[in-house]
Design goal:
mainly alpha, single chain, globular
Length: about 575
Amino acid sequence: MPLTEWTVVDFIHRGPWWRNNSIRALNLLLIVPLLTASINGLDSSLVNGLQILPAWQEFFKHPNGKALGLISAAQVIGSIAGLPFAPYSADYLGRRPTLFIGAIIMLAGVALQGVAASIGMFIGARGLIGFGLTFALNAAPLLITELAYPTQRGKLTSMYNASWYMGSILSAWTCFGAYSGAATSHWSWRVPTLIQALGPLIQVFMIWMVPESPRFLIAKGWESRAARALARYHSLTNDERDPLIQFEMAQIRHALKMEKEAATSTSFFTLFATPGNRKRMLIIIALAVFSQWSGNGLVSYYINLVLEGVGISDAGTKAAINGGLQVWNLVAAMSGALLVDKLGRRTLFIISNVGMLIDFGVWTLTTALFNTLNDKTAAKATIPFIFIFYFFYDIAYTPMLIAYTLEILPFNIRAKGFAVMNLVVSLTLAFNQFVNPWALGAIGWYYYLVYCGWLIIELVFVVVYIIETKGRTLEETAALFDGEQRPHALMQTGGQAATLSLGVPRTPGIWVQEEKSTVADIVEMRDATPRRVGESSKYAAAPRIGVRSDPDPDEESQSSYARTEDIRSFEAL
């Protein structure tokens, strides 16, 4: 029987991340690209908050209908304009330069918006912000996903989109504070718009402190730079010979090689060239549509109209409800992000869709009772059901829309596939922002029935098509859609590299149970010969690579089972 190889489980850090100096430093640096989601939340929520301010309404002469829809959609239109360029920038210039370019463009848009003297100037500034935001939104999640420590990737990528609500909280409470402090001054709306510059400014000055994506560097042939980055932030010893670094480097090389063999050139057509890619894009496009057409767009962009629809007209009350809702959303979204590796992606999506369907049905009923019977009790009951609806939406679609998309895409089409997801989100947002105010004005609460029917379709799709990806490396997850041999080949390649880096095979009977959390542990594993349980010295002779041994069948069976289970669950450690 051939000797068993070392696996990634043997070298992964299992303790709290803050006790590992390398992981702690990396996670702190990743706050810089993580800010992009908060910037998006602030930018996207701003117009929603500004609508509540009397000074903004007066300055722009109470825009409504199509004019209000254009103001809300201007940023989305700018985003769509930038989508053809952002993925090529990320693939050819790198993740960091693309994020830097986006931040510079956003700063220019914020400056223009802050001094806007007309509605046309305001709309143009919103479009420019959206154009720059597209570059940042395309690059930041790629950098986080491809750079994060293996056991931290699922949480960090889920927390990325969940941090959208940090920006929306800042937007809502800034508008509330501006209304409370200077309700009639034009600075009550100019100050919230200028605060948008804070995030891009931090990124402009700090993004160069964050290492470039190792996968991008290897794809460009800069393997030494990739190895140094991985050794600095994934190894406790800062040693490129660390078995974990060898494992990761081998998997990335092998995955890139297989992707190049499958497609000699990559374009947007590659996204639909194979059955595996078509399945990926079906799921990605569907989730992108669901993320905006689940009924959440009604409150996210037109809370003023929704609250007036149940009899709440006081500006202060509406601003306070909006601010409280954003805090609630952040708590729910972060809770979902932390549950990703415990409950799994598929389970959270199903819970989310079932909860939204039931709650939105009750929300529709209370709104109908108020509008048809003028039932004040029903109006009051609508508010808590809005909060409950967002809890179910936030535990899945906020943290996992981006995380799940990036997990299932292989490197060679990751940037372009992610751009398509952003395009679909932008198109559905534009539809929402033009149609929702018109539909609410034309048919009132009957429009809610459309979303009730759509939520049923969403639930059926999620149950049938969503695949569980918990407990796999980034390359193994992407390979799930291309047959069972590819994930196996990736694990085997990484194991072989780790085995060679140690100089000895992982013989049957050896199982490393202690946590590798100190430098001494890693150095001892790298330099010492592994021993069987009961051997008196760690320097005792061990079989060399290529030499057969005769292990006990029962012992080998138990060892194989344990390693398989640990490989599948190492991300949740």
